[in-house]
Amino acid sequence: MGIYSMSITDSVTLLGEEIAREASYLFAYFRNVLAIVGMIYVAYKVSRCTSRIVEAIQMHLIGQRSDKWVEKYGPWAVVTGGSEGVGHAYAYELAARGLNIVLLSRNESKLKAAKADIESSYPVTVEYIVADFASEAQTELYKKIEQKLADKDVGLLVNNVGVMYDYPDVLLNISSEKLWQLIHVNIGAATMMTHMLLPQMIKRGKGGIVVISSGSATHATPHMTVYSATKRYLDCFIQGLAYEYRNSGITFQCLVPFFIVTSMMDYSKILTHLGMIAPSAAVYAKSAVGTLGQSFCTAGYFPHTLQLWIAKAVPNWLWMWGSEKVNSFLRREALDRNELQQQKGDKDKISKYKIEINREQSLEQSH
Ligand SMILES: NC(=O)c1ccc[n+]([C@@H]2O[C@H](COP(=O)([O-])OP(=O)(O)OC[C@H]3O[C@@H](n4cnc5c(N)ncnc54)[C@H](OP(=O)(O)O)[C@@H]3O)[C@@H](O)[C@H]2O)c1
């Protein structure tokens, strides 16, 4: 009985030892596999990071080739929303590279001023078309633009036009008119203008199509929901096009800027004082134009490239949480400023009224 029980104990012990040995082999094996997978992952991340840094340095710091622009993208470039802000500054940079420009926007006096500004600086021709991309008569609008562009060899289309809400806010505080405006201007204009001008570029086997998206489209951005969604549309639109027409000789580009000081940012005083983080349209465009043909998707301006890296690295929940906080703050700022302006307006009205009364009283006394 003793011998019998000892042999059972021995075999159980032996079995346990055997299992422990096998387990430690297996563990060592998996540890090695995990270490190799980890090393490959780290190497992949490091090489991606390095190539991004090298690309950014090459694009933004070493300098941008500006030769053969007319040959590649000329003789005409069309810039939507080109009367002010980024569109105007971008057109200015294209003119510096020898391209003739057609500007499109609503306000004729602003268009005239932009034309005069560019033509007085560079020996190019600037024409303009007065067009409201939010117009209710969408079909007629694009027929009219097509007719006006019929005699031009357009080698570059810059889909710049875009509108935002008056200030960040939640969906139900935005009027339906404003929402249609965002859809027609931010999505419709880029789609229809590209559809109109791409065929002639394909025929010539060269040209360029640029869309201006936004950093707000890297994730869903609460309190700018529709704006950021329309900008995400542009990302997908240009990516799909670049694939469909990859053998056409045409250059496609998606610019992804963050804050730029233009009238679109008028709702916030703070945003206009961020220094390099929020450059002027001229500074932004000078940098962004030179990236055409060098990068398919870029922020276009070095400090924005850094912001784009961070934006892409943060998880969705963190982005949404942070942007809701920032946008709520900016909304409060805009509302406070509106209120102050209204109070000032009321005060002005009261003081004007008092002046009128005083004048009437003194007139009565003098009679
Ligand atoms: N500013 C930023 O911080 C920022 C950041 C990221 C992306 N973006 C994008 O960059 C692009 C340019 O923005 P921006 O800041 O330069 O804007 P902006 O200063 O407000 O200029 C907008 C331009 O579009 C024209 N426009 C507006 N509504 C129009 C309509 N319904 N039909 C035709 N033209 C119209 C305006 O001229 P009229 O008034 O004469 O029509 C103006 O020329 C936009 O796509 C915007 O989404 C801007």
UniProtKB/TrEMBL annotation:
Q: Which UniProt keywords apply?
A: Mitochondrion, NADP, Oxidoreductase
Q: What CDD domains does the entry give? A: 17beta-HSD1_like_SDR_c
Matching entries from InterPro entries are given as:
17-beta-HSD3-like, NAD(P)-bd_dom_sf, Sc_DH/Rdtase_CS, SDR_fam
| Record-linked PROSITE patterns | ADH_SHORT
Q: Where in the cell is it found?
A: Mitochondrion
Gene Ontology, cellular component aspect = mitochondrion
Q: Which Pfam families match?
A: adh_short (PF00106)
Entry GO MF terms: oxidoreductase activity
Write down the PANTHER family for this protein, in alphabetical order.
INACTIVE HYDROXYSTEROID DEHYDROGENASE-LIKE PROTEIN 1
Family in the record: Belongs to the short-chain dehydrogenases/reductases (SDR) family. 17-beta-HSD 3 subfamily.
Give the protein name, as stated in the record: Inactive hydroxysteroid dehydrogenase-like protein 1
| Protein source organism | Candidula unifasciata
Q: What is the lineage of its organism?
A: Eukaryota, Metazoa, Spiralia, Lophotrochozoa, Mollusca
